Amino acid sequence: MTRLWLKRIVLLTVLFAAIGGLAVYNQYMQVEGYESITRLANNRKQKSDSNRLFDNANFKSFTIVFEEPVFAELLTDMKAYFDLYGTYQDNTMHKVDVVYSDAAGTAFTIREVGFRTKSNTSRNLPMTLDWRGREIYHQTSFQLQFNATFDYENNSNEYAVLNKREAFNLDQLNFEYCKSFSGELDEAMVSEAFAYQLYRDAGVTISHASYGLVYFQIGETVVGFGFYTFIEPIDQNFISKHFDSDITGEYGDLYKCTDVGGVADLGPDFTAKAGVNQNAINLRYSYQLKNNTRDGSRTTHEALATLIEVANGDAFARDIGDVLDIDQFVRYLAMGFLIGNTDDYRYNNNNYYLYFSVYDGPATMIPFDLDSSLGTGKHQDPTYQYGVNYDLFAATDDLAVLVGNVLALPEYRALYLSYLASFIFDYFHFDRFEADYLTAKALYQDTLIAENHLGNQVFDLRNAAWYFDTKAAVVTAKISALNSSE
Amino acid sequence: MTKRLFVLLLAVSALFLSACSLSTGLLTTTAITLDTTATTNPASTTATTGAATSTTTNVPTTATTVTEAEIDPFYAALFDNYNYHKFVISFSRANFDKLIYDMQNYRDQWGTYRDNTIQEVDIYYEDGDGNIITEYEVGFRTRGNIFSRVLPVVYDDEGHFLGYQQVSFQLEFNDTFDYPYNSTEYKALKDRRMFDLEQLNFKYIRSNDTAAVTEIAANELYRAAGLIAPETSLCVIYFDIDGEVIPYGLFTVVEPIDDVFVKRYFGRNQDGTIGDLYKCVWQSGGPATLQTLQPSQYDRTYPDRLGVSDYTEGYRMDYQLKTNKANSDFSAMLNFMDVLNDPGAINFQSELEKVLDVDSWLKALAVAFLVGNPDDYRSDANNYYLYFSEGNEPNQKAVYITYDNDQCLGYGWNPYGDYGLGNDIYSMGTSQPWNMSEEDLPLVHNLLAIPAYQEIYESYLLAFIDSDGGIFDYGSFEMEFILAQYLYADEITANGVLGLTTLDLEQRFMTAEDYYAAKIQMTRASINSYHN
């Protein structure tokens, strides 16, 4: 008994000593103008912060603070990568501070956050020198990693704090600017975030998204980087919020599926396209395993293989329900058809995640990258009508085997048509889009102009009313025609 | 509309006061004050739409796909002739010297200064609506043909610098210079537009055309007739070479005829593509008569008359393909020529109407006759574009698009001796009879042999010269001149300004007023001669 108490006293002593030591360490390390990283990790109500971040009616801004040498290093690393591979997809993490503020009165600084540029086509050098040596700034998509550990030793205090740090209840946060496609820009600005909202309305598991202003502070220079869409990343943090773990706390496999290494068409020739990216040598897979990457048993990609086998097999009708969350998938197809993103799985075998429930359960398809939606963006529609006249079961989805096979089954066709009708009735309304648009315009346009931000400054509804109204009318008419012919 | 009326009233008042003061020996100035407080965008290389303050729109009367709401406000402001325009083109000394060097080098190699090497410049634009745009790293090259393209500087026989001279030029807003494909600079520049255009042409105004608005008035006539023609306006140009400011004078701003142009006016084909666009000019292969070509003349590898020009190799086609350069098989144009040159075919007229927008061509022919440009298709098979816009290959209909009307309406080159006033509506000859006759011009000769087309052609002529609302009305020319005088006269008459320094309707060898009056009278007489 005495021994037990002694043990407890020693343990408590060690614990208090550790806490005291950490406090002294932090106090000692705190130089002028610099707050301890531990304070930033622990004193926020993250759920509230997250709610405010994804509240479209709340004015928000992020200032990314670079020390000049860090910004120079970012440029150097990206240029070196471009020289090697002809692309800027260098994912080296750079250390920044982040200042967040919003109209609800929230304002805080997050120290030592990881910054990297992201995306493929929208990834730019944030600054170049022109022919006269002037500094020209460019919008670029980027990611903040709140849990980046940089070069800290993995047994260090900093590592321990940073590795588990969240902000806004997120490990990371993605920032995307309004890109132009062939000189055409989404002047409505809110389209991508609204497309995410529509999927959520439809019951599809998908990221949260909102928008606001971004500033880069490089040394003492502050540059208005413009209007950005903030998007919740699909990562382990996301998975843990939306899916159950097993009793050991493990989650299933998550794949990011894009066309970086050939089309992600879920065709049988997938094995060479699946793997773990090695960005340092520009090795990227169309089916990129995003988690469980250190588990060697995952290199066989069994769950993915099973889905693909069923998707392309003779027993599709019998087995697909075991390997795919059909209801989610049909909801995705129905709302996706209305949103009209022609750079998605259905039309371009691109831009989706697959999450396989622990470990070989049904897969969930999670769409992402919705910047070509709702009547704007890159065209797959050769008539340049943004897909408003596409057939409900068109030949345009020939390549997407999962779409063709699912919609070939009467039960799922009916479900698809019923979702289309109900989504049009319940959610797919121009006035909802317009309300978000007007709110965003009122919140941001004057500042964008007054501060001469990069990118589009003037909001415009472009063809949005036409798109919503025409798409809804055409789909409704096609459903009616189908019903009357049956 | 209010602004237009206000400017017009000011302009007319100014002209009236000017006339009064001249008659009494007093000099009254009509200086225009620019609002330079408009929003600027100095830090960005890309023009944003944020600085737009213009409220005017200038809808082309012939637009088939562009609605008023879709017209970019800067585009509208640029081509609004009620609006003052000024450009400052900033060179580095090194770049300006390189421009000269490259042109001289090209001349040494190919015998002309028609080098199209692009040099980097910065652009500053301001207008009377208060719009101000600054663009960095824009492409600059000179323009013009064998005789009209000159160095922007003058040297004496021993190579000593004497001064600067005007030369027409082009700005390319989407030039990517030597930046590697997919680099940030490449992407930023490739998609860049200014005034909703990828490029913009600037033509100097010949110094003895004191009316200044000849080309503007001519193009306006085409548009007023319901035809597609490039937008034009006036501007003053300044060159700034590392701080040395050269008042480069009055220029006509001309909308380029390119892929942007055809999308703007014709839209896209149903499959999302655009049709073949040809620039048809008299080059080394001869006049662009549209007579049938031999296969060797449009050979993909070694063409000599129809194909894609390569200025770096010193050759330019007479029929220069400007769109679909990589994949066109020229079939639309070749088929068009085949049909056009077979007037003996039993079904010639119906076949012709499958490959040519006959009505717009007859309308253009009528306008061209009145405008009297001796350097167009009908006079010497030069200076026009053909766009094949509709239907499936090879039956895409050709649409004629006029350009380069700086010598017409009683001004400029005068091969007919009377600026074409006495030309017969059917038998007017050509401006270079030693090179070609009317029979060599199938687009006129073979069409006007058909009575039904004669009737349409004459009806257009009569409608255009109708004293009650006809578009061929000197009043519209005079109005353009009054505006030009009001907006630019003071600035271009200042010391040291290059080019045209006098704006005066009376100092032309033939006044425009006389030309319009005589042309109307003699056209009517020519028409009557066929019906008496």
Your description of this structure?
The complex is a heterodimer of chains A (486) and B (532). Chain A folds into 2 domains: 39-236, no CATH class; 242-429 and 464-485, no CATH class. Chain A is 39% helix and 18% strand. Chain A contains 15 helices and 16 strands. A 7-stranded mixed β-barrel of chain A has the order 1-2-3-6-7-11-10. Chain A has a 5-stranded mixed beta sheet with strand order 13-14-12-15-16. Chain A starts with a helix and ends with a helix. Mean pLDDT of chain A is 89; it is low at 22-34. Chain B is of the alpha+beta class. Chain B folds into 2 domains: 35-260, no CATH class; 265-464, no CATH class. In chain B, helix 7 (331-340) runs antiparallel to helix 8 (348-355). Mean pLDDT of chain B is 86; it is low at 17-68. Chains A and B meet through loops of A and helix 4 of B.
Low-confidence stretches of chain B: 17-68
Termini gap of chain B = 46 Å
Mean pLDDT of chain B: 86
Strand content of chain B: 15-25%
Give a short account of the largest sheet of chain A.
7 strands, mixed, barrel
Largest sheet of chain B: 7 strands, mixed, barrel
CA-atom Rg of chain A in angstroms: 24 Å
Give me the side-by-side strand order of the main sheet of chain A.
1-2-3-6-7-11-10
Number of strands of chain A: 16
